[in-house]
């Protein structure tokens, strides 16, 4: 895929995060790794703090149950 970029350094590529695939103008594609948490956050438009806020009720219940 390096050759694809070298041939046309200004060409637009399509990045499909859900499928973890980069598609080049020639139609060739390459997959790429990404950890599941980062993928979830990017696809849902949240950061780490916003992700944790989704579990605030569960966190409060846990804290109430195990409070010292």
3D architecture notes:
This protein is of the alpha+beta class and 68 residues long. The chain is built from 4 helices and 3 strands. It has helices at 2-7, 36-44, 48-53, 56-65; strands at 14-16, 21-23, 29-31. Strands 1-2-3 form a 3-stranded antiparallel sheet, with no helix packed on it. Strand 1 and strand 2 form a beta hairpin. The termini are far apart.
Mean pLDDT over all positions = 92
Distance between the termini: 57 Å
User: What is the number of helical segments per DSSP (H or I, 4+ residues)?
Assistant: 4
**Radius of gyration, CA atoms, in whole angstroms:** 20 Å
Could you spell the SSE succession in H and E letters? Answer: HEEEHHH
Tell me what portion of residues adopts beta-strand conformation. Answer: 5-15%
- Strand order within the widest beta sheet: 1-2-3
Percent range of helical residues: 40-55%
Low-confidence parts: none
